[in-house]
Structure to design on (608 residues):
C-alpha cells in the first residue's frame, strides 16, 4: 500500500474538466465518471483490508467501545495506522502515503461497520488532520503529522460552540496576542468536540484581532493548534448521546489558555477558509461512510428476514418485506454511484494541480462544493431510511439492544447534523449554483432562458433513444428541464430575495439532488452495460426503480414551488408546463422490486 493508486485512464484523460454543478446543463458520458467498477487493483485491496479490519478487529470490541473504553479506540486507531488506514491524506515527506481521495473515501466506506469507531477515526484522519496538511508550516507538520499518521497521537477539530453551530464564523471564543508577540491567550468554550476526551492535538477556532493590512482592527475567525496538557485547557464531561455513544464528545474549556505564537495555523483572520474547505471533504467522506453503514445494515436485515419465520414461512417471502429490502439496495447502489462520482471529479481536478500548491488544491475541492453537499444530504437521509426499515423488519427485536438494528438506528441520526445540518447544506446547494450563475461562472441563466422559451413555445419533443434505459434517459432529460424551469420560475418571482425564501431554496435543492442522483445511477449502469460487467440486469432494475422514485420527488417539489411563487393564470400555465414535462409511462415498480429483492435474498447480501 505504499504506492499511490491512479484512476483509470478513461477517467483522467478527458478533454475538459466539468465545472461543479454543470451536470444540470450538460450530458456527461459514462467514461468520464468514476464508479466502484473503476477501482484499481490497489483500491480493491484497500477496500478488502479495511473491511476485514472492521469485521475482525473493530466489531468484536463493540461492547467495550460503546461503554467508552477509549483505550480500545486508541489501540484500534494505532492498529489501523499500521495498515496505512490513517495516513492516506498525509504527504510522504511527513510519514504519510499521499494517496488519491478515492482511497480515503473507500476507507471511510468500508470502516463504517461500527458507528462510534467510524466517527472517531474519521475525525482523526479527516477534520483533525487536513487543516494541518493544508495550512500548517513545515515546522508544524514535522512536529505533528508523522505522529498523526502512525496513530501515536489522536487529532480533533473544535469549531462549534453552544451559540454558533451552523453559524460557526460568529464564534465567541477569543484569542489575544501577548504584548511581546510570543503567545496567544485564548478564552471561551467549544462544544460537541469529537475525540474531545482523549485527543492529543486540537485545531481550535477563535476570533482574533487582525493587526494590520486589509481588515486591520477587525476580529475574524482564526485557527490554532492546541496540545492536551496546555495550561488553561481542560475538557468538560462526556456528553451522553442518543447515538454513537462510544465516541468521545466533550466541551473544550479555554481559560487564559496560553499557547506559543508558532501554534497559529494559517493566517490571522483566515480561519473561515480552513473551516469551509475542511467541511467539503468531511461532507463527501460522510456520504461514503453512510453508504458503508447502510450496506452493513442491509446485510443484517437480509439475514434476519431469511431466518425469521411467521405464518409458516420466512418473512423474506412476504411482498412488503421484499419491497423494503429492494428499496434499501436501491439506495446503496445509487449512493455508491453519486459518492464515488463526486470523489472522482475531485481527483480529476486535483490531478491538474501541483501537490505543493495548497491554494490550488483547495480551489479544486471547493469547486465541487455543491456535489459535496448533495452527497452529504442524500447519503445521510438514505441511511436513515435503511436503518428505519431495518428496525421495522426486526419488529420487536429491533427495539432491543442485543440486536443490531437498535444501535444502527440511533447511530445514523447524527449524520443529518454533522458537517453542517442538511438544512444548511440544502441552502448551500441552491445558493452556490445561483451565485455562480449570476457571476457568469456557470451558464445557468442562458440555459434557463432557453428552456423557458422552449416550454412556452409548445409541446417538447423527446429524443429517439434505444437500449434498456431509454425511458430512464428520457426521464432524466425531463428532470433537468423541470429543475431549470422551476429555478427560473422562482428567480423571476423572488429575484434577489430568493435567498430569504428558505423553503423554496430547499425545494429546488431537492430537485437538484434528485437530478444528480438519477444521472449518477444511469451513468453507472450505462458504464456496466458498455463493459458487459457482472450484475447488469440487477443494475438496470435498480436504475429503473430509482428513476421512477426520483420523478415523483421532482414533481412534488416542483408543485410546491409553483404554488408558492405563482397564482392565477400564471400558476395555471406553469402547472400545465409541469404536467407536460413530467408526462411518462410509469414503470411496474412492484415487479421490479420483487425481482431485485429475490436476487439479494438469494445472495444473502448486497452484491453489486
Amino acid at each position: 500500500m505504499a504506492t499511490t493508486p491512479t484512476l483509470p485512464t478513461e477517467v483522467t484523460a478527458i478533454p475538459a474538466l466539468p465545472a461543479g454543478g454543470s451536470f444540470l446543463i450538460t450530458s456527461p458520458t459514462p467514461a468520464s465518471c468514476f464508479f466502484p467498477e473503476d477501482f484499481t487493483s490497489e483500491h480493491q485491496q484497500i477496500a478488502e483490508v479495511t473491511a476485514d479490519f472492521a469485521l475482525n478487529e473493530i466489531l468484536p470490541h463493540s461492547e467495550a467501545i460503546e461503554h467508552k473504553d477509549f483505550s480500545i479506540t486508541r489501540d484500534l486507531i494505532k492498529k489501523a495506522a499500521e495498515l496505512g488506514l490513517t495516513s492516506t491524506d498525509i504527504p510522504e515527506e511527513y510519514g504519510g502515503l499521499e494517496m488519491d481521495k478515492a482511497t480515503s473515501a473507500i476507507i471511510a466506506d468500508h470502516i463504517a461497520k461500527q458507528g462510534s469507531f467510524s466517527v472517531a477515526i474519521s475525525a482523526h484522519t479527516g477534520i483533525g488532520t487536513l487543516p494541518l496538511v493544508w495550512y500548517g508550516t513545515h515546522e508544524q507538520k514535522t512536529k505533528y503529522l508523522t505522529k498523526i499518521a502512525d496513530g501515536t497521537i489522536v487529532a480533533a477539530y473544535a469549531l462549534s460552540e453552544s451559540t454558533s453551530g451552523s453559524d460557526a464564523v460568529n464564534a465567541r471564543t477569543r484569542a489575544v496576542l501577548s504584548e511581546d508577540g510570543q503567545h496567544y491567550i485564548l478564552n471561551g468554550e467549544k462544544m460537541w468536540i469529537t475525540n474531545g476526551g482523549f485527543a492529543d492535538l486540537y485545531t481550535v477556532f477563535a476570533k482574533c484581532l487582525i493587526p494590520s493590512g486589509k481588515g486591520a482592527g477587525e476580529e475574524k475567525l482564526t485557527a490554532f493548534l492546541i496540545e492536551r496538557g496546555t495550561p488553561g485547557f481542560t475538557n468538560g464531561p462526556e456528553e451522553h448521546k442518543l447515538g454513537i455513544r462510544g465516541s468521545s464528545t466533550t466541551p473544550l474549556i479555554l481559560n487564559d489558555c496560553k499557547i506559543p505564537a508558532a501554534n497559529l495555523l494559517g493566517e490571522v483572520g483566515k480561519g473561515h477558509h480552513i473551516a469551509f474547505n475542511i467541511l467539503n471533504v468531511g461532507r463527501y467522506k460522510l456520504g461514503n461512510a453512510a453508504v458503508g453503514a447502510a450496506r452493513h445494515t442491509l446485510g443484517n436485515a437480509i439475514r434476519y428476514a431469511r431466518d425469521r419465520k411467521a405464518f409458516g414461512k420466512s418473512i423474506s417471502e412476504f411482498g412488503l418485506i421484499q419491497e423494503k429490502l429492494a428499496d434499501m439496495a436501491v439506495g446503496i447502489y445509487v449512493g455508491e454511484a453519486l459518492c464515488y462520482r463526486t470523489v472522482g471529479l475531485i481527483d480529476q481536478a486535483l490531478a491538474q494541480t501541483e501537490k505543493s500548491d495548497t491554494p490550488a488544491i483547495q480551489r479544486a475541492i471547493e469547486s465541487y462544493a455543491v456535489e459535496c453537499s448533495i452527497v452529504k444530504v442524500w447519503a445521510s437521509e438514505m441511511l436513515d431510511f435503511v436503518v428505519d426499515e431495518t428496525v421495522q423488519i426486526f419488529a420487536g427485536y429491533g427495539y432491543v439492544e442485543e440486536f443490531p438494528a437498535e444501535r444502527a438506528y440511533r447511530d445514523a441520526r447524527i449524520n443529518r447534523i454533522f458537517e453542517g445540518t442538511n438544512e444548511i447544506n440544502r441552502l448551500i446547494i441552491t445558493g452556490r449554483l445561483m451565485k455562480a450563475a449570476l457571476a457568469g461562472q456557470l451558464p445557468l441563466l442562458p440555459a434557463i432562458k432557453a428552456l423557458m422559451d422552449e416550454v412556452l413555445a409548445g409541446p417538447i419533443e423527446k429524443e429517439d433513444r434505444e437500449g434498456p434505459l431509454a425511458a430512464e434517459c428520457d426521464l432524466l432529460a425531463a428532470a433537468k428541464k423541470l429543475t431549470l424551469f422551476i429555478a427560473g420560475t422562482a428567480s423571476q418571482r423572488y429575484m434577489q430575495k430568493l435567498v430569504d425564501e428558505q423553503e423554496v431554496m430547499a425545494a429546488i435543492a431537492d430537485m437538484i439532488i434528485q437530478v444528480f442522483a438519477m444521472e449518477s445511477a444511469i451513468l453507472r449502469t450505462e458504464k456496466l452495460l458498455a463493459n458487459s460487467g457482472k450484475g447488469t440486469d440487477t443494475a438496470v432494475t435498480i436504475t429503473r426503480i430509482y428513476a421512477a422514485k426520483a420523478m415523483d420527488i421532482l414533481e412534488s417539489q416542483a408543485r410546491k414551488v409553483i404554488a408558492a411563487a405563482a397564482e392565477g393564470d400564471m400558476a395555471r400555465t406553469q402547472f400545465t408546463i409541469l404536467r407536460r414535462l413530467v408526462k411518462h409511462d410509469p414503470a411496474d415498480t412492484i415487479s421490479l422490486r420483487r425481482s431485485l429483492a429475490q436476487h439479494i435474498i438469494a445472495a444473502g447480501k448486497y452484491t453489486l
